[in-house]
Batch of 2 targets.
Target 1
Amino acid sequence: QQQVKQSPQSLIVQKGGISIINCAYENTAFDYFPWYQQFPGKGPALLIAIRPDVSEKKEGRFTISFNKSAKQFSLHIMDSQPGDSATYFCAASKNSGTYKYIFGTGTRLKVLA
Amino acid sequence: DAGVTQSPTHLIKTRGQQVTLRCSPKSGHDTVSWYQQALGQGPQFIFQYYEEEERQRGNFPDRFSGHQFPNYSSELNVNALLLGDSALYLCASSFYSGSSAYEQYFGPGTRLTVT
């Protein structure tokens, strides 16, 4: 019940395309869902986060869609660029983030020039 | 404004040895969490410190211990190192308001190799 399932494991997108990464959770107590971007040899960097009181949040080219009833959330990267090539992790937490983060297994994104 | 800093960057140890990793949180942050990230995997929560006390702990053995200092910096200690302890160790800091915490910001990590 603590797991966060992430798919796909890897993704190849053409420059200018839309990258979509999906996550699913089981624990209905989770109430905070961040997405992190990680480049090789670096720590994860916070991209965008959402709480379940909204169904969508957009920041620049990054959008989180949240489906509370299905217990699923996804990251959409619009106009994908080669510089977006990285590994993306979804995470979930409860008590508005005071609890530990449960991370997905990661999606390796490659954007072709 | 310095972000989360960790030292050392890389470390090579032998099985059975002990290691200490260090973390300085982002300015204004008072909570430090430690994660272990094996190659190709997502980070796994080790423990979290707030007000110099361990507040939460993940599924890691007692060989993993930590400490938080009055200036909010933190150390992660691992005793009796095993080959399986080889990983990237990440420190994340956040600010805890008493009713909720804000985003966790990660440091660059310490790459530990156990031979």
Note: The radius of gyration of chain B is 13 Å.
Target 2
Amino acid sequence: KAGVTQTPRYLIKTRGQQVTLSCSPISGHRSVSWYQQTPGQGLQFLFEYFSETQRNKGNFPGRFSGRQFSNSRSEMNVSTLELGDSALYLCASSFSVEGYTFGSGTRLTVV
Amino acid sequence: QQQVKQSPQSLIVQKGGISIINCAYENTAFDYFPWYQQFPGKGPALLIAIRPDVSEKKEGRFTISFNKSAKQFSLHIMDSQPGDSATYFCAATGGESSTLGRLYFGRGTQLTVWP
């Protein structure tokens, strides 16, 4: 079966711009969560959506937002990009707590 | 506050040796402890996981040992191979609403297996 698909794979943006990242979960998975991965901070939880509702949120500023659509696909948006937002953004989908599957991520570079 | 602490940060092992990575957690409500393996350019992939009602789980060359009283768990890779060279993350979740849909990760261990 198809895995978690994240698009685009790579992005280069300028400071101050905004960006939207997309995640298509495994078919049947209703939970989608997002993580930021950096060498200095490791894997940091951004937020999680289940059936279009945000159930949990990490400690990130309001510039980071997300949403989930009725087909479980999810998007995350970062506004007013800062250099420190450069990271690998990972999406994971799951059917239950025992089945988190990650995508390959979107590598965002802010210049 | 780091809910899951992982050590060592890096590990070098000879081919055929045993790799051991340790993790400790804070929240006694956690009830699911997975290990993830990540190769460069890829997302983390689930390797093996354990629930606190068992003290050990083995899948092939990979074994998780779990010590509930000490709030510690570890990954043992037997007969380590060069193909095992990757970054390993321990994680924890479950047990209460505040952890819903969220994995708490350790900082990762960069494993290098020399041929």
Note: Residues 41 and 87 of chain A are 10 Å apart (CA to CA).
